[in-house]
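Repro:
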Amino acid sequence: VQLQASGGGLVQAGGSLRLSCTASGSIENINLMGWYRQAPGKQRELVAGITRAGTTNYADSVKGRFTISRDVSKNAMYLEMNSLRPEDTAVYYCASRRVGRSAYEYWGQGTQVTVSS
């Protein structure tokens, strides 16, 4: 499975960005997809996840501001980010895992999101 993330960039605080992730390869058994982020000097953290059925979960820090969605027919996942804050600055990675797996096993290359104050 190959994941390709895109959509990062530089935005002012309060602005919005939309990240996209496209999956290719042996994707038929992919269930969960998600977005992680890693800021300089910090551990990578889960931002949001979504199952094939559309069940979502979010980190507390992004609830009400970020929305994860998925288009199974296009093998794509999105992260709509609104009301961005400087602390959202990080490299964002898309990830996925197959049914029955306990951890994310496929990773995209990351896309930089920078929020200026």
